[in-house]
Amino acid sequence: MSYGAPPPSNPYGSPGGYGGAPQDHPKGTTVLILGILSLVCCGLFTGIPAIIMGKKALEEIDRAPQSYNNRGNIKAGYICGIIGTALSVLGIVLNIILLAAGAGLAGS
């Protein structure tokens, strides 16, 4: 046995153990940023993509929970996207009601 030789390679292809270490989901940061932007400034324009991408990413994590470790970030972005979209829709509806009420008052 020589001390300078590298250890034998794993015949199963993963660097260490079964399945390797869990990694961050590739869409995790994107979903979180889109969700936060939907709350702060962009509303529907980033809220709807955050919801769609977040839902798909959560489904992928549920299929292979040992593969990914940033479920919390994705869930936070998904929820922020839902809240931002709901607030945007509420704001649009209120604006329409106020415009209709203002037009009714101006006509009398």
Describe the structure.
This protein has helices at residues 28-42, 44-63, 71-107. The protein has 108 residues and is mainly α. The protein has one domain (28-107). Helix 2 (44-63) runs antiparallel to helix 3. The longest helix is centred in the C-terminal third of the chain and has 37 residues, at 71-107. It is rod-shaped, with a radius of gyration of 24 Å.
> What is the helix/strand order?
HHH
Q: How many separate helices?
A: 3
Shape: rod-shaped
Please identify the structural class as seen in this structure: mainly alpha
List the helices and strands and how they pair.
Layout: H1 28-42, H2 44-63, H3 71-107
